[in-house]
Amino acid sequence: MLGSMIALGRDRLSAVAQPNMITAHAHSAQPRWQTLWQQAVRDPRELLHLLDQPELAQRVSTAATAQFPLRVPRGFVARMRRGDPTDPLLRQVLPILDEDRIAPGFSLDAVGDGAARATSGVIQKYAGRALLIATGACAVNCRYCFRRHFPYAEEAAAADGWLQALDYIRADAGIQEVILSGGDPLALATRKLAQLSGALASIAHVNTLRIHTRLPVVLPERVDGELLAWLRGLRQRVVVVIHANHANEFDSGVDAALAELKSAGVTLLNQSVLLAGVNDDTDALVDLSGRMFAAGALPYYLHQLDRVAGAAHFEVSDERARALLAAMRERLPGYLVPRLVREIAGESSKTPL
Ligand SMILES: *Cc1c(COP(=O)(O)O)cnc(C)c1O
Predict the structure, then answer these.
(1) How far is the CA of 125 from the centre of ligand 1 (A)?
(2) Residue 12: per-residue pLDDT
(3) SS3 of 64, please?
(4) Is the CB–ligand 1 distance for residue 307 below 6 Å?
């Protein structure tokens, strides 16, 4: 909610709020991905209608929908199995009654972002790298998102043209890598990304730009000619960490987008979250690694869930997580086995399990 509105900008708020205006905008000069972005499904009943399972509406939570609305691009919906209430992609996006359950230990700021906030829009927890909240916007609202309660409106660094964030990074020669996160940094118009990378290029100690993004998976149309030209022109080394949790998230459109990213010279990695009912079995994880490799990405992290309020029904025990990793190791080459980690507030790195 907050997020999408920030990134789309004031001039487009009306189109977002009123779906019947989208046709008018489809003919304007904006890139195609932005049109597709605006046409995302936002009504749980519509989603369930598209998937031939209107009866699932009984399990939808009005409170959870109000707190963190449904948002899912239509191309991602097309990869869901119709008539299957257990579909692993659907489970990641549908606000269900389980979210209303109060679970001990699940909080609003699960990973201590509040405390690690260095300056407007910058979170620094680890040596050598700083994370910049480039925007609060995301194309998809994942129910387990650890920033689902994060006050983006205050934090989006873009609000002041990243001035404070850039000053902070410039002043610390130890920062070699800037991680663009959010929200989803590729939610920004390429022109905005170019402004940001241009400013970063003037900071000699920053030699690596990392982009944490789910867009190449959920809205592969984002990887368009303009984005690729921007990537090709960057002075810094570029690492793109995509986010897919299940093999079914890949299709030919995603394959093409990732192939183009690679041809632009980026290092391509994937991070996943271990999620009950989505990927918490060995076959699903083995298939996920194989599928991402076929698409050109290597596994990076498999995250234990951040304990954010509303996501307790996704939790997998550490014991089970370790067993799943052990089973993966028996079936996969080492380079297709992700690092199983948890983020613990106050630690100096992600913690291996
Ligand atoms: C996860 C994270 C990083 C990146 O950690 P890596 O181990 O380098 O992937 C950086 N900053 C913050 C605040 C993070 O949460």
Answers:
(1) 7
(2) 32
(3) helix
(4) no
